[in-house]
Amino acid sequence: MGPTSRETWAQRLGTFRASPSTFMAGPEGEDLGRHLLSDLRSEKLSEPTKVSLLALSLEYPAQLWPDAPAAEVAATSLLDTLVLLPPRPSALRRPLLLAATTALAAGGALGPTSRASRRLLPLLLGLASGRDLGRSFGPASEQRPLQATAWECLRELESCKPGLLGGCLGLLRGLLGQEAAVQPLSLLLALALRNALVIQARARAGLQGLLVAGDCPTEGGPWNWMLAEEGDAHLQPQAPSWPPAEEGECCLATLELSPEEARELRAAVAQLLDISYLLTPVAQAQLLWLLGWALRGLRGQPPVLFKPQLVRLLGTAQLTLLHAVLALKAAFGEALFTAQDEALLLRRLTLAAQHPALPLPAHLFYLHCLLNFPENWPLGPAGEEAAPLLLGSQLCRGLLPSLLHDPMALLARLHLLCLLCVEDEEKEEKGQDQSPRQYLEELLAGLRQRAALDGGPRALATLCFQASYLVARCLAGQPVVLTPLTHGLAQLYRARPALAPHFVDLLDRVGPELGEPLKVVLRQEVVSRPGRDEALRWHLQMLARVADGDAQSATLGFLQAAAARCTDWGLQQALLQVCRALLRAGVGGGLADLLQALARQLEDPDGRDHARLYYILLAHLEEPKLGVALGPSLAAPALASSLVAENQGFAAALLVQEAPAPIRLSMGPHRAKGPVPVLQLQVEVLEQVYSLELRFRVERQLYAPLGAVHVPCLCPGRPTRPLLLPLQPRRPAPARLAVRALYTTPSGLTCHAHLPPLLVNFADLFLPFPQPPEGAKLGFFEELWDSCLPKGTESRLWCPLGPHGLEALVSRHLEPFVVVAQPPTSYLIAIRLPPDSRLLLRLEAAQADGVPVALRTDDWAVLPLVGDYLRGLSAAG
């Protein structure tokens, strides 16, 4: 079978990338890797096509070479292809090197028994070092790119197999003084040195002359696998984050170095640090992290080696280098940084964070560094949050949060302000004009004032509660701050009860220092100010969270007054949730009378059953057993009461459970007749359901409340009649209907589910006018046309036509509304828009590609909707 063509490979690669697992499971998946390796040697494929094949092997090595034998075969074939390339310049040499390296590393074939590994490693080392093996490999113009690729491949292999280059430390160190590729060589040497130190420390052995220069391995010759076999097989962390003390310091402390080995190690580290200024900022930060990791906890290696670099880096404007300096400070502390260095770092961070032109990410970075600054001698227990001792209010005056700041920056600055408030009392005694605590109270008051705006953005309310949580967490032990915060939040709820979900979430997250007093004041706000009917559901939701055994009479009085206004299912369920909370809190007495009244007067049978069940539990169980019966899990331990033990299944059947919807609801054809628009709904079920009730809610209140639709029984596979849902628009506009289904399963459980929303289009609202007598149609239309002005408006637009022309378009979309027709070029159309608007269209002098439309309406707000509708008719077909 010959090589695959370029077009076939393009199609095959596209299919593979769309779903690799599906492709590999198909008939072509088994031979994909073999065909790829074979076609790389074909002279009929161009180099760009072969590069795309190699790119696939770099992206999906685990799929192409799933095990070590397959990876070994692939790497051998790739190396053979590399050797067979002609001496002229080629774009395949670097991808082939990367592909062979990736196949060995990802396939787990890298090891002393792998022939491909014994070929690849000396080849990479020769290319990187520029020896004769490298110079005879490819033209001179490709030596520099090949050398850079070889360094990256070696670094990747050392990362995947720690200790692989441990026997080449001396060689790499010797190349450092003469090699032009300083950056990749420096990073590789630092990584190999770190790995060798860790492996030898775990083996309780010295460096054993590893830092002394040795001979470079030749192709096919022996390779030193000793350290790689003793090291970890998994990928070591490369990010600038320090390992735990027991993993780093305690491990390296066991490394015993002779005086000569210690001297060689210091010389190697100093050599790397001396040339670090030649590296890019990101590479410098990586190098500092690797060397700091290597020397952290190592006995006999003073961190003073980093001191010359700190003199250079303390004034850096590069964030990566500043982060590396702070990491060194966290690792070595006062052994490397003096008090003057610490003060200089704090001042730099503080002033840099106040720069007005600073981008938001950089601003947040500086604030994060201040909040987590590693002090030389921190006060207080380890892990406790506190502002640095040298960071005073005067220095941070420019970092105080403001309502004009970005939300993320405001929260970070607020965090710093909270830490400064810990020592607020001492500074107040010195007669400050405005203490941090006073500024904090004013800021929180401003946030609450913005959150209280009725109809304000949700982001403002979210920011207010995020700030309140942050203050409660940082200042939990300061009542002088929490008391005004509690009263301020109570005032916010009084102004905007619709924020009840935010309050519930806040109560779930804060500790008892704020949570308990906040519950008390919120309960007082609810029971003392019933509010308007639209706020009742928020009051009930809040009361279900804060209700307890205190203030029973006031709470029960509020519930008795609210019961008369709970007319729909949602309010009744919210009321019963409050009763459930009172039951769990051990409230009796008046609660029994309330439950009896609810069992009689609630309209919804589900609500009456719940009230009756709660009354039975209250009458027959003592408080401890009542708490178990009303716990969150239905798998409660057996109770002593025979009534409850026998009726646990009955109680489960009474609870409305949320379940995945076995119901599919879709829109049927438009029904253009009657006094109001009516949606025809098609319903299908995946399993048998009984007593189906579909409840609809119109978003943005564009329509009057919609009634529920009831179906006694539905069976899968059995055709059903369309369900009719009348609409009562308050203005002619499309809308989105949220749908919820309540139904009973064959096992007797009552379930509810949310269905995908239904979209009501503008055309779904169209209604025809009553048909005038024959002969009076034109006069009827002209009378309607004249009546639109001067109250209404007139417009003209172009309606594009599809390939079937105007007659087919009108017949498909506008037939019920045609008053006068002169096919195929002229139509007069009258449409009634509920509740009391009209839309008149003149489609005359149709052309091949479109028809001019003159329209009049007595409601100017529908003009954009009409334009979008007419322009979309041709696309609809």
Report on the architecture of this protein.
- The chain is of the alpha+beta class.
- It has five domains: 29-230 and 253-300, Alpha Horseshoe (Leucine-rich Repeat Variant), CATH 1.25.10; 406-422 and 435-529; 532-622; 656-763, Gamma-adaptin ear (GAE) domain (Immunoglobulin-like, Sandwich); 766-873, 2-Layer Sandwich (TATA-Binding Protein), CATH 3.30.310.10.
- Helix content is 51%, strand content 11%.
- Strands 9, 10, 11, 12, 13 and 14 form a six-stranded antiparallel β-sheet that branches. It has a five-stranded mixed β-sheet with strand order 1-8-7-4-5.
- α23 packs antiparallel against α24.
- The model is unreliable at 233-240, 244-250 and 633-650 (pLDDT under 50).
- It holds the Pfam family AP5B1_N.
Q: Which terms summarize this structure?
A:
6-stranded antiparallel beta sheet, 51% helix, 5-stranded mixed beta sheet, Leucine-rich Repeat Variant, alpha+beta, 877 residues
